[in-house]
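re: that chain from earlier
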Amino acid sequence: MLKAIIFDFNGVILNDEPLHFAAMRDAVADLGIHLTREDYWSKYLPFDDKECLENVCRDHSFQLNETTRSETLERKARNYQQSLRGGYPLLPGAAQFVRAAAGHYPLALASGARRIEIESALDSIDLRRYFTVIVAAEDFVLGKPNPESFLLALQWLNDARNTAPILPAECLVIEDSVGGVSGARVAGMHCMAVTSSYPREALQAADRVVSTLENIALESLNDLFEEIR
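^ sequence. v structure.
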């Protein structure tokens, strides 16, 4: 039975993966690295900023030091914030789905984005109050596809409750990336994938693949657990 929902953030609630790509592309360009959209989506999208930068530099044989790492990450963060001056790009149906789900299940968020970015966005779109737990990049070591962020989100959810603990198999993760789907399954959780970042065929490891969170009936999520029990 479904007892909790854990959301990814970028690509599930906010349609800002292209903004993160452009911000990182321009940041590493100052290091002489040409980051293509194809490489970003196929290799680096699930990572938090630090892991993304380190992997990009490793793959381009660029040796990072602490100063260069810090300056590049700050440049990426500035680029991203500047791209949001026109507002936060919500994905279709995301806000409505979060509000509806919060009336029936405890909600958590597990993301490789920085906490300040997540909370600023959620406050601006009036969704922060629906999440009991937010796990951000600062809270874990190993990014997706490692399951650490999902398991930490569940641990914090259980810590916030006075009832019997929720088990991984009673959680639904909503993801948009191949690495995120893999991490959810390794965590022992079920997963619904949204095709906002990857094509349907790349996300077939998920229990269900949808094109949008619009018109997703909550009852159908519990039905999904019954189907795959």
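The beta strands are 4-7, 107-110, 133-135, 171-175, 190-194, 208-210.
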